[in-house]
Amino acid sequence: MEALSSKIADLCVVYGEKIALAIICLIVGKIVIGAIMGWLDRVRYFSKIDQTAKGYIFSFMRIGLWVVLLIAVIQILGVPMASVITVLASAGLAIGLALQGALSNIAGGVMLLFFRPFNVGDYVSAAGAEGIVKDITLFYTTIVTVDNKRITVPNSQVMNAVVTNFSSEELRRVDLNFGVAKSESPAEVQALMLDAIKTTPKVLLNPEPFARLIGGDEKQMTFQARAWCKSADYWDVYFDLTQRITEAMGAKGVKAPAARIVQG
Question: Where in the chain is the domain with CATH 3.30.70.100?
């Protein structure tokens, strides 16, 4: 009995030391990985890379460092790598099925970097999410909505979805529809709309602004206003035009100047 107790104590000491060393290695390794990633972020070479590629490369490197750290921890615990490889090989099918989605996300991320349908900082609509692209990592694309919600979308879904990039072109056109009473003069309504458009800040005069009667029904005539602006100024122009044209119609006594807005 005394010999058994002594053996158990010896085993506890041996494995206790290994577990303690493995925990220390894990903690120190985590700190070292953070330091390495911070140092790489300050390297001049990486500062020249655009944010889209930089985020993906850093994500890949961080995962690689963690894999190296986990292998080191396994070796410290005394688990033979041959045994680990054997277990992984025997469970290959299950692991392959489990990683199928992850591998497709990695492939999707590579395709996003290669074809560049958007970059970090662009305002996009993709896979049911709309907002500013915050980050593209190894597995996910992060989009922040205009009301500051963070949406994480798998890269594979983004790559297989229809992507609308609102920031890719230098200019965008704002289209607004307005309904007025049929008793109003189309020429006068068109003139006051054009005047309101041209005096709106950030509206470009080239391409030329547009305001015309486009249709109607038995109750009203429908006019459309079109104005070009820089992509970054789209929402400022969108709301300013809505207010200015509505106010201009009210000031001139145009009947039923109710605005029905259609985003272009």
Answer: 171-260
